[in-house]
Amino acid sequence: MIFKLADIVCRETAVRLCNELPRGNGPVEACSQSGPGDGVDVAGRQLVDILLAHPLFRLVVQPRAFSPPRLRLHAVGTHANPTIDDAIVDSLGLIRADVTICVFLNDPSEYDEGELVINAGNGDEVFKESIGTCIIYPSAALRRVEPVKKGNCWTAELHAQSLIRGQAERQILYDIGCASHFLETFGDRNAPNAVRLHRCREQLLRMWAET
């Protein structure tokens, strides 16, 4: 499953993240692992805090741990060949990469092509999103970045280890969570069906969660 969350990062924060990247004519990457006072590290921790504050993000990912965000500049001519992410990544300690998160940090009008292409088992899906949009997809999905023809594309990428190892199980919990939220918002959260649905979700979490 691939999820798209629009406006998860405001324009001001996206610009501040971009400013933490060194400038250059080739592919550039900065990782928020340099040190607690480093600008990239501060920006990376701020990004994680923003993601965790979004209830739909938490519902989709069920996060347990994150890798340090990597801030990427895709300049003219740069691209990423088809690949899948490593199963285990270093996060100042090893974590299992269940979910990959990509946040677009500048407007698509500022560059030509440079699309993110993801195949999670249902064919290629193409993303060239507005500033602040977050794409969430399984780390086992095949993905690539098309060559940038003009301008610069800025993104932040990180991995998450989920409390729920299986993608199918995460989908079930997401569907139940959305239904439960609908009942709580537009109905009576104490009605028997709402309570029953909440109980089902909590029981499934007890069965599947790895803490």
Structure description:
- By secondary structure, the chain is an alpha+beta fold.
- The chain folds into two domains: 3-162, q2cbj1_9rhob like domain (Jelly Rolls, Sandwich); 167-208.
- It has five helices and 15 strands.
- Strands 1, 2, 3, 4, 8, 12 and 15 form a seven-stranded antiparallel β-sheet that branches.
- Helix 4 runs antiparallel to helix 5 (192-208).
What keywords describe this structure?
four-stranded antiparallel sheet, 32% helix, 211 residues, 31% strand, seven-stranded antiparallel sheet, alpha+beta, Jelly Rolls, 2 domains, globular
Compact summary:
The protein has five helices and 15 strands.
The percent of residues in helical segments reads 25-40%
State the distance separating the first and last CA atoms.
23 Å
Q: Please provide the count of β strands.
A: 15
Which class do the helix and strand fractions yield? Answer: alpha+beta
Shape: globular
Strand fraction band?
25-35%
Give me the secondary-structure topology.
Blueprint: E1 3-5, H1 11-19, E2 28-31, H2 39-52, H3 55-61, E3 63-66, E4 70-74, E5 80-83, E6 88-90, E7 94-96, E8 99-104, E9 111-113, E10 116-119, E11 124-127, E12 134-138, E13 142-145, E14 148-151, E15 153-162, H4 167-186, H5 192-208
